[in-house]
Amino acid sequence: MKNKVITGLLGLLGFLVVLGMATPALADDFNHATVTDKSSQEGKTEVTSTVASNFTLQVPASFTLAYNTFDTKIGGVKILNGADVNGNGYGIAANQVVNVTAKNDGPLTSKNGGTIKFTVNDQASASKDSFASDSFGTKQFTNSDVISGKEVPVFMHIGQDQWNNAASGDYTGSITFNATLTNK
User: Fold this and answer.
1) How many CA atoms lie within 13 A of 87 on its CB side?
2) Do the Cβ atoms of 115 and 167 come closer than 8 Å?
């Protein structure tokens, strides 16, 4: 009886091995070309690739402005090469630029309703007067600029008249920087 059980198990094991060898292998899609003695065919492979431009806009996160200062460098704007978490991308392609603009989000304001108007510029002013408008403009960064570490300074200008008329209090405000990738 014991021999019959062992023989039966060995037979079942042999059947399973044969069944496993008969399992077909599955593959990806293929273009098949059949060639006979007097004919020919061609197959075509489509190749795709993605070249991603990845960069990081670096701007000052925050700044504490001293009372009665007229032109203060609050930091700089810079573009850094970057790759995503999968290692895709390398920065800015040679035929592209990153355009950076700065938007003054309004005056500095306090909880008691006081305001201090300011402008955003890329250089210091010799004047203690208020600027009529922001003059940061649009700054362009090329691939070479990114590699060389180009940084554009950011200045805040507040005129003497604004400080003279400011009520006491804690003031806050912000500047929004925008970076846009375009072709040259």
Assistant:
1) 0
2) no
- Planar angle of CA 6, 12, 13, nearest 5 degrees: 90
What radius of gyration, in Å, describes the C-alpha atoms of the chain? 34
Q: What is the pLDDT of residues 22-34, one digit of tens each?
A: 444 444 566 666 6
pTM of the model: 0.68
Question: How many H helices and E strands in the chain?
Answer: 3, 10
Tens of pLDDT, residues 117-143: 999 999 887 677 765 678 899 999 998
pLDDT at residue 15, as a whole number: 45
Which strands, in side-by-side order, build the sheet including 96-104?
138-141, 96-104, 175-183
Helix spans in the chain (H): 2-21, 143-148, 160-165
Is the CB of residue 178 less than 8 Å from the CB of residue 121?
no
Q: How far apart are CA 63 and CA 61, in angstroms?
A: 7
**Which candidate, 172, 157, 174, places its Cα nearest to that of 110?**
172
More confident call, 1 vs 92: 92
Q: Please report where in the chains the tokens 């090469």 appear, as a residue.
A: 81
